[in-house]
DNA sequence: CAGAAGGTGAAATGAATGTTTCGTCTTGAT
DNA sequence: ATCAAGACGAAACATTCATTTCACCTTCTG
C-alpha cells in the first residue's frame, strides 16, 4: 500500500477540488516545485490513488432535478440472478449509484430523473420488470443539502 | 434556459467522462473544429451547465472503504434547528452527501468512513450529539456495485 | 429575393504546459 | 560517521495549448 506524506495529501486534496490545476499552479497551492508536483502526481496516478479527471455537471442543469433513492428486495439471492440484475442497473444511465446493502433490503439505488413520470416509467419498466425483483421502496429528495466528491485525506 | 443541440450534448457527455480533454482532443471526439468546441465550452461554462473540473479519488484508496447511509429524524422541524444541524453536516468531511427527504425520515446522509469504529465515533459525537436529532438508522454498504458522476444528457 | 445575424473551420499568435536533465540536499542504514 | 539511494528545485526544451481573426456559409426575417 502507498504511503502518503503531507505533500501528497495536499496534492490529492487540491486536485480533488480543482483537477484543472497545472503543475505550476499546483506547486504554488501546495508549496513545492512544479517538477516535484509533476513527479508525485504521476506516482499517485500510477498507484491508482488519483483517478480520472472529470467535469461536474449538476443534474438539474440537464433537467434531471429529481433525486430518488430506491431500495430493492430480491426474490432470491442466487448469484446468476444478481449478476443479471446488476447488468440491467449498469445499463440504465439515470441510475448513478448502486450499493448492495445490509439490513432489510438488498440494494440501494440512487437515480437522477426528470420528474415523477420519468421515474415511474423507469421503476416499472427497468427495475420492477426484472424477474428477480420482489419489492421496491422509493424515497424522494426534497432538497440536495450537501453534495461533494471530495474524500477527506 | 439554455437549449443544447447535438454537438453541445456530445461535448457535455465527453467532458463528463474526461475533463482533461483539450479543445483539439475534444474536437476530434465530437467531430467539430477546435475553435467551435472552445467557444461552446465557454458558453456552457457561463450558462452554468459545465461545472468545475475535479479529480476522482476512490474512497477506498484513502482508507475510507466503508459507505454508510444514515437516516435521521429530527425532534422539531423548526427552521433554526435545521439550519444549525445542516451547518454541522457541512463541516463534517466524511459526510459526502445530504438530502432532505420524503417519508418517515427527515434526512438521508451518505458517508465514507474508515470502518465501524470510525463511524461509531462520528455518529455519536457529530450527529446524535446534536440537540435536535431524535433518531438515526444506519445502513451499511456491502459493496459498491455502480458509481458514476455522469448525468445522462 | 435580399440581407442581417450568427455559427463555422482554418490559420496565426504568443503564452503556458509537460517533461527531462543536472547538481545539490536530505535521509536512513550500516 | 559514512555511504548509497532517492527526492529536491532550477533551468532548459520542444510541444501543445488557449485564444483571436477572418472569410465563408447557413439560416432565418422581412
Automatic annotation (TrEMBL), chains A, B:
One of its GO terms (cellular component) is cytosol. Pfam families: AsnC_trans_reg, HTH_24. The keyword Transcription applies. It comes from the Bacteria. Keywords: DNA-binding, Transcription, Transcription regulation. Transmembrane segments: none annotated. Residues 4-65 form the HTH asnC-type domain. PANTHER family: LEUCINE-RESPONSIVE REGULATORY PROTEIN, TRANSCRIPTIONAL REGULATOR AZLB. This is Lrp/AsnC family transcriptional regulator. InterPro entries: ArsR-like_HTH (IPR011991), AsnC-type_HTH_dom (IPR000485), Dimeric_a/b-barrel (IPR011008), Tscrpt_reg_AsnC-like (IPR019888), Tscrpt_reg_AsnC/Lrp_C (IPR019887), WH-like_DNA-bd_sf (IPR036388), WH_DNA-bd_sf (IPR036390). GO terms for molecular function: sequence-specific DNA binding. It comes from Paracoccus caeni. One of its GO terms (biological process) is response to amino acid. The keyword ATP-binding does not apply.
Amino acid at each position: 500500500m502507498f504511503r502518503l506524506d503531507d505533500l501528497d495529501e495536499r496534492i490529492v486534496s487540491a486536485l480533488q477540488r480543482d483537477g484543472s490545476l497545472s503543475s505550476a499552479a499546483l506547486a504554488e497551492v501546495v508549496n513545492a516545485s512544479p517538477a516535484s508536483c509533476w513527479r508525485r502526481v504521476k506516482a499517485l496516478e500510477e498507484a491508482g490513488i488519483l483517478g480520472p479527471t472529470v467535469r461536474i455537471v449538476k443534474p438539474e442543469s440537464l433537467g434531471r432535478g429529481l433525486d430518488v433513492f430506491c431500495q430493492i428486495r430480491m426474490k432470491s439471492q442466487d448469484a446468476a440472478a444478481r449478476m443479471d440484475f446488476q447488468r440491467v442497473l449498469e445499463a440504465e444511465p439515470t441510475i448513478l449509484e448502486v450499493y448492495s446493502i445490509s439490513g432489510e433490503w438488498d440494494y440501494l439505488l440512487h437515480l437522477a430523473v426528470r420528474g415523477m413520470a420519468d421515474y415511474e416509467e423507469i421503476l416499472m419498466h427497468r427495475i420492477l420488470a426484472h424477474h428477480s425483483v420482489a419489492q421496491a421502496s422509493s424515497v424522494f429528495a426534497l432538497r440536495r443539502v450537501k453534495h461533494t466528491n471530495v474524500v477527506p485525506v
